[in-house]
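Backbones bend. To wit:
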Amino acid sequence: MTPIDTTTVLIALAALLIGMVVGMTGMGGGALMTPALIFLRVDPTVAIANDLVAAAIYKSVGAGVHWREGSPNLRLAMWLGVGSVPCAFAGAFIISAVGSDDKQQDFVKVAIGIALLIAATTYAFRIFVNLREVKSGRARQDPDPHIRPLPTIAVGAIGGGLVGLTSVGSGSVIMVTLLLLYPGLQAVRLVGTDLVQAVPLVMAAAISHVIVSGVDWSVLLPLVIGATPGIYVGSKVANRMPQTVIRRGIVFLLFITGLNLLGVNPIVALLIGVIALVAGTFAWRALRARYTRLAADSDKNEVPANPPR
């Protein structure tokens, strides 16, 4: 009987934990898994290819659930796909055109570092938007907004390009940009649409990477074995977990990991991350206090429906 390699076990455990985080918060995915694989000494190009294949499997499951519930806006997902699918498919071929294997690995590490910083910024912005909606009492209520094809295609192209090059961006950059383009889109429709459009996007990126570099089964199998139950468990316990704390932790982790992949010394990256976390915490408290005060003032100024005579 062949002994199980230690790296295989670590990949499965990392996939399990990251799957739980994704199930609990809807955040993470490639932004967490690809850097984790690199940390476990998997080559960046191999990490991207296998993470994309695994994501194509488990995102299809999530998209199927939302499809049955009728939550996706299929027209919006279609226009996103027009931009995202060809750009995602081009990713592996762009990487292969960089040059030698060493140059490709260096290029991908820098690209992932930049993508992680972008993802951290967009996640932080998403948290801020959610806070503003909760404190203002305004919920997104438009189930079928007017679709703007050209900006939507552009969003898909940018997100698809990022995913094709780094496996990061399908759930961070695209979702937050959709919040800006369609602020009235209901939260459940937003998540459902993002998951449905992510399936052809991730599949296109995965196919191109498989064509160029193939699949490493010693990486892919533990990814799928770990992530699938992780997402299921995370989804089940999501309502009992401190979402805000977990999401801030993800932003912090993405920020310092992105800096580290860009060549910043790990201690310096950690120090910068701590400073940013402390500053962000104070800014967060100030924003919460401001929106709480605005909500209270709005309640005081609200005119009663049947004023006394």
